[in-house]
Design brief:
The structure holds 2 protein chains of 2 kinds. By secondary structure, chain A is an all-alpha fold. Chain A has one domain. Chain A has 9 helices and no strands. The longest helix of chain A has 30 residues. In chain B, strand 3 and strand 4 form a beta hairpin. The termini of chain B are far apart. In chain B, the strands form 2 sheets. In chain B, strands 3, 4, 7, 8, 9, 11 and 12 form a 7-stranded mixed β-sheet that branches. Chain B has a 5-stranded mixed β-sheet with strand order 2-1-10-5-6. Chain B has a single domain, classed as Alpha-Beta Complex (Sulfite Oxidase, Chain A, domain 2), CATH 3.90.420. The chains are: A mainly alpha, B alpha+beta. At the A-B interface, helix 3 and helix 4 of A face helix 3 of B.
């Protein structure tokens, strides 16, 4: 199943609207005072969770592609990754503006002294070069291999995101545990593929020539 | 995003929650009254029912109380769920009637009180207190209750009693499992327990205490972090040894026995210097002993409050 370019365009549009939906609902909730007694906390929490969710959705693209054979899914990955970054920036803005109200001294102290904030901030800083090199020209300029190496930074970013969530929770770690388990699965899969690949090369001595793993796909549309 | 800073609305122009909750309250009360007429006395004590005329207290603060809605829909009561919106949604997990409170341990007259006896034990007062949560938010709550000291006097603590342990109701079949070591317990030094600010609350906003806020009877210690105020109390135990509380067991490096509000002693993971008053946009500075230093600081003279956090 491979959609035509036109169909893919339609899929992307729908996905774009879907990705904006949480932001829209939060905005409405804020305007209608429907975010509970502590709307700033609710907003901080929600934008943070959506950042983590989008990171994990982005990390799901490759396994999904491998197991379904739907290679076109990779064409949606950039948008998902950029949404993760956008929600992350909103999360930071909520903290800087609404929570701390630009109290730079307090913010600097928080980043240095509070491990959970240090880790969260580091994750967002690491996301920035990925967002900045997400357009086609940057991929061409860096070259596929280097670009890919850089974008593997999403693995530590996802881990930092989970740690950030885990450390801020007072006691009930159920939620961060769920995110951590999903992250572990997604990263574990990749480690396992690597190991299989290594063994194959050791024993068989041949490179995988066919099958979904070996297929070369373009990750962007060249014009 | 459009966040307006508070405009210059005069406090006198703000509709008090009592007024804007009136319609719902009328409905709730008329239902409660109808029930009360049908049931024997003492059984129909439900949240929302008025507690009658209350004595005003010199210990009340003059700050504007947090809305009834916020007080009753945003709080921690882990037995009813660990999200702050959970307790209000899970009120059926706790039946506040019938109810008894056992006072035992190092006392001359150990005794089990029914909730009806507790309500008549001392004149009910309204106490408008600040409430500072360890998580960094705060409220102003008009509690209804009586000083814990009045109850302690009745049971005659022995000279060897140095601490009071408070134990909350716990029902494994309906309440949260795990997270903390149940039942929830808290503790105070005997002088803290006898302090006139220390309250046993049976209501808020002039009405019977809602289940989510710790019905039918709970502890309120306004100069300490909110979690010291154990809810839905079933046992008070006077002891010689300092009790080990649920939060001390859960995180000994993060939660100490005293847990006095102190802007200078941070929680290991976050600052305690400021707080967000629910309903306000800007954060405010947290006050030493939550603003009750004049009344309580003398109990801690000579103590290293960093060590005894």
């Amino acid at each position: 199943m491979t959609p035509t370019n036109q169909q893919l365009g339609a899929i992307k549009t729908v996905l774009f609207v879907l990705c904006l939906l949480p932001a829209f609902l939060l905005w409405r909730g804020l305007e209608m005072d429907a975010l509970g007694a502590n709307p700033i906390e609710a907003l901080t929490r929600a934008t943070g969770e959506w950042t983590l969710r989008f990171l994990l959705i982005t990390l799901t693209v490759t396994p999904l592609r491998k197991y379904t054979g739907w290679h076109w899914l990779v064409r949606l990955r950039r948008m998902l990754g950029l949404f993760a970054f956008a929600y992350g920036v909103t999360h930071l803005l909520t903290y800087v503006w609404l929570d701390q109200f630009f109290d730079w001294q307090a913010i600097a102290k928080d980043i240095l002294k509070r491990p959970f904030i240090t880790v969260g901030f580091a994750a967002l800083v690491l996301m920035t070069p990925l967002a900045a090199t997400s357009f086609n020209a940057a991929i061409r300029r860096l070259g596929g291999r280097r670009w890919q190496a850089l974008h593997r930074a999403i693995y530590p970013i996802a881990v930092l995101g989970c740690v950030h969530f885990w450390w801020l929770v007072k006691k009930d770690i159920t939620q961060p545990l769920i995110y951590a388990a999903i992250t572990a699965t997604l990263l574990g899969l990749r480690a396992w593929w690597r190991e299989q690949e290594r063994r194959k090369q050791l024993t068989g001595g041949y490179l995988p020539a066919h099958g979904p793993t070996g297929k070369i796909i373009r990750i962007f549309q060249s014009h | 995003m459009l966040i307006r800073r508070p405009t210059d609305i005069l406090p006198s122009e703000i509709t008090v929650p009592e007024l804007y909750h009136d319609r719902r309250r009328f409905l709730a009360q008329s239902t409660a009254l109808a029930l009360a007429a049908a049931l024997p006395a003492g059984v129909a004590r439900a949240a929302g029912q008025s507690l009658g005329p209350l004595a005003k207290s010199p210990y009340s603060v003059s700050e504007t109380p947090t809305s009834y809605k916020a007080v009753t829909t945003y709080n921690n009561f882990y037995e009813l769920g660990t999200d702050k919106a959970d307790p209000a949604e899970n009120t059926t997990r706790l039946r506040p009637a019938p109810w008894t409170l056992r006072v035992e341990g190092l006392v001359n007259k150990p005794r089990t009180f029914s909730i009806e006896e507790l309500l008549k034990l001392a004149p009910l007062e309204e106490r408008i207190y600040r409430m500072r949560c360890v998580e960094g938010w705060s409220m102003v709550i008009p509690w209804v209750g009586f000083p814990l000291a009045s109850l302690l006097k009745l049971v005659e603590p022995q000279g060897s009693a140095k601490y009071v342990e408070f134990v909350s109701h716990y029902d494994k079949s309906t309440m949260t499992r795990g997270v903390l070591d149940w039942p929830y317990n808290e503790g105070l030094r005997i002088d803290e327990a006898r302090h006139p600010l220390t309250l046993l609350a049976v209501g808020l906003y002039g009405q019977v205490l809602p289940v989510q806020n710790g019905a039918p009877i709970r502890l309120v210690v306004p100069w300490k972090y909110g979690f010291k105020g154990a809810k839905s109390l079933v046992t008070l135990r006077l002891t010689e040894k300092q009790p080990i509380t649920a939060w001390m067991k859960a995180g000994p490096s993060e939660y100490g026995f005293y847990s006095n509000v102190n802007p200078e002693v941070d929680h290991p993971r976050w600052s305690q210097a400021t707080e967000r008053r629910i309903g306000e946009f800007s954060k405010r500075k947290t006050l030493m002993f939550n603003g009750y230093a004049d009344q309580v600081a003398s109990m801690y003279t000579g103590m290293d409050l960093r060590r005894f956090f």
